Amino acid sequence: MRRAVRVAVIGAGPAGLCAARHLATAQGLLPTVFERSSTIGGTWVYSDSVGKDQWGLPVHSNLYKDLRTNLPKECMCFPELSYRADLEDSYVDSATVLQYLNDYADQFNIRPLIKFNYHVKRVAPMGKGWSITAEDLPNKTEEVYSFDAVMVCSGPHSIPVYPQLDGMAKYSGIQMHSREFRTVDIFDGKRVLAIGLGPSGMDIALLASKIAKKVFLSHNKEKLRGEGSFPDAVTLKPNVQSFKDKLVYFTDETVEEVDAVIYCTGYTHHFPFLSKDCGIVVDQYVSPLYKHFINIENPTMCIIGLPKYCPHLLMIDYQVRFFVNTLLGKVTLPTREEMMADLENDIQIRKIEKQRKKDYHKMWKDRSQYFRDLSDLGNLEPLAPVHIQMFSDAFLRALRNYQHFRESKYRIIDDEHFEVINGVSNTTVN
Questions:
Q1: Terminus of the chain with fewer CB atoms < 10 Å: N or C?
Q2: Could you read off the pLDDT of 49-89 as tens digits, one per residue?
Q3: From CA 130, how far away is CA 348, in angstroms rounded?
């Protein structure tokens, strides 16, 4: 009788839950999930704490109060479970997403598979398999495990990135990264500068504008779509050139006095538990990965959930099932040379398009093709077109009118059609 394939899953956030669900129901696979905290949900678990947790490890949560999703819930779910039918709004708060993940875990009986309060400290190849060292945090003991495959599901939002700006270290006001931001109360009556035009920067600028004396939003875009969608209390500014005391000098030679600066400048990927001989290199993006998730050097390891600008939970589900099919022998991966050639081709296209290295995991125009690749190569059913169409529509609405795009309500009609209620005029993009 063939021995079960032992699979380690690192993290019990959305990716880890999805991995556990599909591994547990696949004949011959035996999953063990390591979760550092005492609960499931990963980044969707809100905490007032910042800095270090009770174990002296970095607080994982980067949520803030009043956060609402920047995608409709209709394209933020796994294929097998929708959100509760009584939820009318498409854009929901973080507690609703966390409840959804708990419902998913309960429906598929995932919790018994999870070792809570276990911190993975080292993953290293061992023969044809893997050695994992994990600390039982409450008991302060280390344990070593052997596995045949590893699914890294620890999430991408790990180490905050700060810009390097002249005088930044001597700025005399409040400074923080968006990872540490929890509530706008700290900005009451203050002049606030948010740096970064991603979702966090725009969200925090809008939230702060309700209570702050004045909000400035610094960005590096030459042309900004939807500029008029910000309230009068938010003034758009170009890049910051330097700081002096509480004065901020911008590249257009304007100067503003601000009381607080919040850096909404993103994160860098960080997998400190992966030994060097795992073969994974992080240099603004994660490499070498086949189709952005399978470790080319050691293909019994995958890193789930890296691609951005696509329906995230659906992408996770497709990556997980693709990898599970490789473990079951239903999918044969290309040779190392073929996978490396595929990766190099992807990188060359991105270089021609003058993409920054840190954007190499973003699915700008090719999100439909990415899902086709996952389904074709992973022996999976094609993704219904409505999901990409709805994602693209929601993405464009946010670009055009960030202040009001969450008022739109979506309803899926069939595999190719959806409708929008309470939204601005609709343009569907494939």
A1: N
A2: 998 899 999 888 889 999 999 999 999 999 999 999 999 99
A3: 32
* pLDDT tens per residue across span 297-335: 999 999 999 999 999 999 999 999 999 999 999 999 999
Strands 114-116 vs 118-126: parallel, antiparallel or unpaired: unpaired
Tokens of 114: 């999870």
Give the amino acid at 4: A
Q: Is 429 contained in some domain?
A: no
- Judge whether 145 lies within some domain: yes
Q: CA 38, 42, 45, 51 torsion: positive or negative?
A: positive
Range of the domain at 414: 387-421
Same domain for 95 and 202, yes or no, is no
Q: How many Å apart are CA 132 and CA 147, to the nearest integer?
A: 8
Q: What is the DSSP secondary structure assignment for residue 334, as one 8-state letter?
A: P
Domain identity same for 130 and 22? yes
As for how many domains the chain has, the answer is: 3
190: number of Cβ within 10 Å:
18
In a domain, 235, yes or no: yes
**Domain check: are 170 and 246 in the same one?**
yes
What is the DSSP code (8-state) at residue 114? Answer: E
Q: Binning pLDDT at 50, 70 and 90, where does residue 423 land?
A: low
pTM assigned to the model: 0.94
Residue that finishes a domain, picked among 235, 263, 291: 263
